[in-house]
Structures are given as structure tokens and as C-alpha cells.
TrEMBL record:
<dbReference type="GO" id="GO:0140662">
    <property type="term" value="F:ATP-dependent protein folding chaperone"/>
</dbReference>
<keyword id="KW-0143">Chaperone</keyword>
<dbReference type="GO" id="GO:0016887">
    <property type="term" value="F:ATP hydrolysis activity"/>
</dbReference>
<comment type="similarity">
    <text>Belongs to the heat shock protein 90 family.</text>
</comment>
<protein>
    <submittedName>
        <fullName>Hsp90 protein-domain-containing protein</fullName>
    </submittedName>
</protein>
<dbReference type="GO" id="GO:0005524">
    <property type="term" value="F:ATP binding"/>
</dbReference>
<dbReference type="GO" id="GO:0051082">
    <property type="term" value="F:unfolded protein binding"/>
</dbReference>
<keyword id="KW-0067">ATP-binding</keyword>
<keyword id="KW-0547">Nucleotide-binding</keyword>
Length: 601
């Protein structure tokens, strides 16, 4: 027998635990959701392993989760036949924090206790057991470790790992026993458990059982019955018929009694939502599924269900979350886990990477279940499969369709959508030549027509264009205020042109990559020689005359400003301002120069 060993929790875990055990949380019931979700993850893992190693199941072939409450010992026990953990994994997974962002979570719950319900999003869901328990035992057995181990902790500073004195009772899997706190005894009540488990297991694809008690009225067997039964079991069919006839003849007064029956009752239906006929799935179900999938507490902004047929058969659900993740635009390269891929209902991976879902679209959350992909290959081989490429294309197209549908039918929602994801669409228009047109069509800007909101689409702009106008005029700047002070605007506004205000940092890139829209070129009004096409041109003679007349001034300015400007010319662009500094046609605008300077710092 191995020695039992005591370990200290990582400092951050300790801090988390302190917060968890020292205050009363309204939403502490979420520990059950976290345990069910961990069990489901572990079952997903063994099912995935069994695809390439069919013997993996043998140690415990029946995939499920069972939950038993025992008031006498004040314990709640959750057992799964998932992948299990070795001694080393118990120590690492239940003692240290793998993901970053825990401090962020800690300060969030310090400010607002309800935020504890988001614990799962931060990769520390397990520790929520200490919301309701003062002692926790985790027994676990995995295929790679010949010995079953137990992990025991009373929270805060340390935990102990030892060989399980009961031996290998699990075959394979994990059994978590919570010793329930005095003030949390409600979590041993069957009615409470039924309600919570139904809620949290609805979208889990493995059966979840609760040990439950019901009363039943049963006939009391007489000695005669027992004898008859035994005889009939040994006889052939004819004897059974005989027996039945006899039973009808007798018509005895039935004797009954009421007994309590305890048994495992399945709490979920295990029919994945995406495999059901979408006509039978309500909006509420889609919303709840989104929350189960993402652990977001708010409703999704929108969603779409669709089926792929033909080249590859699959079903998919796409969700648009109500908000872009915090720091979304800064951490874009790290974005992952956008899409959960299943093959024939078996969870394969949620790390498909940017080949599958381009970065600019990684704000959506999706689920794909494909029929035709090979199951018995490694994750890596599967990820390179050409059918995945096909699915990815369909998914991207459907997502853009969904955005267009929101734009068309739900203007208020679309305003929210643009606020959250406008820059992502611009990134898409820059990156994807294929979808450029439909993405550019979705973009919204402020303009001289309405400067208070980013609400002007390029189609709107074009309907207001003047008869001879061939350009979409725009100006860049860091704010509407700054732009409205700009001398370049004057002349266009005076002539009645509408000018698009581009105030997001990504806009400069956008107009460099997207030359125009619908046959109209983007034209920066702060650059080069602006032609309107409706100027009353001076004759060559008149022009010469003017240039000559102002020559002393322009020559003097050229000398004085030689360090700062390339050249000084007479312009027709200004109406009330006497002078303006203009970027050369192929040079950077002042706004871009400022951006570059800021980036260099
Ligand atoms: P997360 O689930 O986000 O990784 P948790 O704190 O819930 O974070 O769990 C930490 C880790 O502990 C899991 O990633 C997993 O490796 C392991 N674990 C927890 N519960 C189980 C279980 N029932 N079976 C196997 N491994 C588990
Ligand atoms: Mg978890």
C-alpha cells in the first residue's frame, strides 16, 4: 500500500476557497451543475478514446452518472463511469489552476456574489463543491493507473491523496462524495435534487440517474402463488397457457400492501436538441441550450439551426452571444473553443482552430454534428479532413446569412449587434475576399447625415448620392467631434455631399483593402486632388493668372515651411478656412500617422 501524501493547494486555489467558504451565496446550487458537467466531460473523453481503442470501455462498459443522497451520513455522492484520474492527475487537476483569469474571477465575486455562478467559465468549477460541503472525497480510477486513489480535503489549505483502502471499486470513473454543511441540508432532499438535476442535466448526452424513493401498492404473494410460479418456469409453453387459464378461473380476493421502493430514476432524456425536429424545439429550449453550452447567464442575441445535405451531412446550431467577450479585439489570436464538433453524437473536439472558423468570426458559438466523418482516426487527422473544410464554408455562409436576417428584420437587435461586432465584420471584409461584399454591406457608420450613431449603411449612403457622384466620400479621425472641426469637410458639406465618418482604428485598414462598394470608390476627402465632376473649371488662362497672382505667397510659404511640407499649392477645396495641410495622394493621412505613432510606443 502506498503512503498517503499531503499537499498544499496552489495559492490562488486557496484564495478562491477562502472566498467560497466564508460567505453565503444565493446561487450555491450551481455546484451540482459543475459536477454534472465535469462528469459529462469525463464521459465524453472515454467515449472518444474508445473510438481508437475499443478495449478502453471494458473496465466499466456502461456510460452514465448516478447521484445518491444519504441523510443518515449527510452525504451526497456523484459517480460517473468517465475517463477517471490517476494519482498524478488528481494532484494536478484538483490542486492547481490551469487557466489564467482566476484573479479576475476572484475580484468579480468579491464585488458581486452572484458572479459565483460563472465559476465554470474560469476553469475552476470543481471548487464550487465547497459552497455546500465542508469535506469532500474524490475516489477515481483510470485505465492508465492500476490503483484507485482517493483525494480528500476540508478546503482552504491542503488536501491528501492516498490509495483507496476499499480497492478498485469503480472499475473506471470518478466518485465524488460531499459531506454537506449544516446550513445546506436542503441539498439532500429528494425534491430539491430532482428539480436541480432535471435543470442541469437537460442537455447532457449521457443518462443521469438519481436514487429516488417512491411508494407502490403491491399484491401480497401467498405460498400457493410461489409454488405455482416455480412449476411453470420449468414447463413448456402449453403449461404456461394452462397456468393463465387457471389464474382467471380462481378470482381470488387480491391482498395488497404499500411498500417503499428505492431505485435509480433517469432524470434526462438524452436526446440531443440538435437531433430533434427543429419544429418541436421551442425558443426557450434553444436559449437554455445556449446557456448550458456557454455558461453565459444572459440570453443569446440570435441563433440559427440548419442542416447540411448533399456533399456532407451534418446538423448545426449557430449562436450570436449578446456581448463580445471581454478584450475580444485584443486577444483575437488566442480565441478558440468557438465550435463544438460531434461526429454521430460523439463529442470530438472544441479546438478546431482558425482554419475551421476564421478569427474575425470567432465571436459566434456553434455546434456541429457530422454524419460522414470517420470516427476511428486521430483528432489531428480528422481536423485536416476535406469534409470539415466544406462544413466550415457552409457555417461561415450561414452565419453571414443570419447577420443579414437580423439587419433586415430586427433593427434594434442589429444596432446591438453592430455595437458589439462591428469591428469584427470590418476584419472579415478585410480578410475575406470571398465574403467582402456581403460583409461590407452590413457595415454601419456615422456620417454627416447622422453623426450621432453608427447607423448609416453604404446602401443608404448610395441612395442619397448626387446624380453625378461616383465616390463614397469619407474622412477619418478619432472622434466625430474631431472630424466635425476638420476644414476638409467644409467644401463637401457646402456642396451638399454626405461624408462618412470613419472613427474606428480599423477603418483605415478597411479602406486600404476594400477599394469601394457597389461600383462606387471610397474617396478620402483629406487626400490629394479631389474632383467632384461639377466644378466650374477655370480656363487655363484664368488658372495661370491666379497662380501668378499668388506666387509671392506660395513661394514664401514654401521656404518657411520647407521642413514640414512637400509643396504649397493653390486649392479649390476650401471655402472658409484659408489653408489646410493635406496628405499626398499616396501618403498616410494625419489620422494614420497618429495611429502608427501610437503603435510604435
Ligand atoms: P474545468 O472543468 O473547466 O476543467 P474544473 O475545476 O471543473 O475545471 O475541473 C478541473 C479538472 O479536474 C478537469 O479539467 C478534469 O481534468 C478534472 N476533473 C474534474 N472532475 C472530473 C471527473 N468527474 N472525472 C475526471 N476528471 C475530472
Ligand atoms: Mg468543470
Amino acid at each position: 500500500v502506498e503512503q498517503s501524501e499531503k499537499f498544499e493547494f496552489q495559492t490562488e486555489v486557496s484564495r478562491l476557497m477562502h472566498l467560497i467558504i466564508n460567505s453565503l451565496y444565493k446561487s450555491r446550487e450551481i455546484f451540482l451543475r459543475e459536477l454534472i458537467s465535469n462528469a459529462s466531460d469525463a464521459l465524453d473523453k472515454i467515449r472518444f478514446l474508445s473510438l481508437t481503442d475499443s478495449a478502453a470501455y471494458d473496465t466499466n462498459p456502461y456510460l452514465n452518472v448516478s447521484i445518491v443522497a444519504d441523510k443518515a451520513t449527510r452525504t451526497l455522492t456523484i459517480t460517473d463511469s468517465g475517463v477517471g484520474m490517476s494519482r498524478k492527475q488528481l494532484k494536478e487537476n484538483l490542486g492547481t489552476i490551469a487557466k489564467s483569469g482566476t484573479s479576475e474571477f476572484l475580484s468579480a465575486i468579491e464585488k458581486d456574489k452572484d458572479k459565483v455562478s460563472q465559476i465554470g467559465q474560469f476553469g475552476v468549477g470543481f471548487y464550487s463543491v465547497f459552497l455546500v460541503a465542508d469535506r469532500v472525497t474524490v475516489a477515481s480510477k483510470c485505465n492508465d493507473d492500476p490503483v484507485q486513489h482517493v483525494w480528500i480535503s476540508e478546503a482552504v489549505s491542503d488536501f491528501t491523496i492516498a490509495e483507496d483502502p476499499r480497492g478498485n471499486t469503480l472499475g473506471r470513473g470518478t466518485q465524488i462524495t460531499l459531506h454537506i454543511k449544516e446550513d445546506a441540508l436542503e441539498f439532500l432532499e429528494e425534491a430539491t435534487l430532482k428539480e436541480l438535476i432535471s435543470k442541469y442535466s437537460e442537455f447532457i448526452n449521457f443518462p443521469i440517474y438519481l436514487w429516488a424513493t417512491r411508494t407502490e401498492t403491491v399484491p401480497v404473494a401467498t405460498e400457493e402463488d410461489v409454488v405455482e410460479k416455480e412449476v411453470s418456469e420449468d414447463e413448456d409453453e402449453a403449461a404456461v397457457v394452462d397456468d393463465e387459464l387457471e389464474g382467471e378461473e380462481k378470482e381470488k380476493e387480491p391482498k395488497t400492501k404499500t411498500i417503499e421502493v428505492s431505485e435509480f430514476v433517469q432524470m434526462n432524456t438524452v436526446k440531443p436538441i440538435w437531433t430533434r425536429d427543429p419544429k418541436d424545439v421551442s425558443d426557450t429550449e434553444y436559449v437554455e441550450f445556449y446557456k448550458a453550452l456557454t455558461r453565459d447567464t444572459s440570453d443569446p442575441l440570435s441563433w440559427a439551426y440548419f442542416k447540411g445535405e448533399g456533399e456532407v451531412e451534418f446538423r448545426a446550431i449557430i449562436y450570436v452571444p449578446p456581448k463580445a467577450p471581454a478584450n475580444y479585439y485584443q486577444t483575437l489570436s488566442d480565441m478558440q473553443r468557438t465550435v463544438r464538433l460531434f461526429v454521430k453524437r460523439v463529442f470530438i473536439t472544441d479546438e478546431l482552430g482558425t482554419d475551421f472558423m476564421p478569427r474575425w468570426l470567432s465571436f459566434i458559438r456553434a455546434l456541429v454534428d457530422a454524419e460522414d466523418l470517420p470516427l476511428n482516426v486521430s483528432r489531428e487527422t480528422l481536423q485536416k479532413h476535406k469534409l470539415l473544410n466544406f462544413i466550415s464554408k457552409r457555417l461561415i455562409k450561414k452565419a453571414i446569412d443570419l447577420f443579414h436576417q437580423i439587419a433586415k428584420t430586427e433593427p434594434d437587435k442589429f444596432t446591438d449587434f453592430i455595437r458589439e461586432y462591428g469591428p469584427a465584420l470590418k476584419m472579415g471584409a478585410i480578410d475575406s475576399q470571398q465574403h467582402r461584399k456581403r460583409l461590407t454591406q452590413l457595415l454601419r457608420f456615422a456620417s454627416s447625415y447622422n453623426s450621432s450613431l453608427a447607423s448609416i449603411g453604404l446602401d443608404d449612403y448610395i441612395t442619397r448620392m448626387k446624380a453625378n457622384q461616383t465616390s463614397i466620400f469619407f474622412i477619418t479621425g478619432s472622434s466625430v467631434d474631431e472630424i466635425e472641426q476638420s476644414p476638409f469637410l467644409e467644401r463637401l458639406l457646402a456642396r451638399g455631399y454626405e461624408v462618412i465618418y470613419m472613427i474606428e482604428p480599423i477603418d483605415e485598414m478597411l479602406v486600404q483593402h476594400v477599394p469601394g462598394y457597389n461600383g462606387k470608390m471610397f474617396t478620402n476627402i483629406a487626400k490629394g486632388n479631389l474632383k467632384f465632376g461639377d466644378e466650374k473649371d477655370l480656363t487655363v488662362e484664368e488658372e495661370k493668372e491666379q497662380i501668378e497672382q499668388f506666387l509671392p505667397l506660395t513661394q514664401w510659404l514654401t521656404t518657411v515651411l520647407s521642413e514640414y511640407v512637400e509643396k504649397v499649392v493653390l486649392s479649390k477645396r476650401l471655402t472658409t478656412s484659408p489653408m489646410a495641410i493635406v496628405a499626398s495622394e499616396h501618403g498616410w493621412t494625419g489620422h494614420m500617422e497618429r495611429l502608427m505613432a501610437a503603435q510604435a510606443q
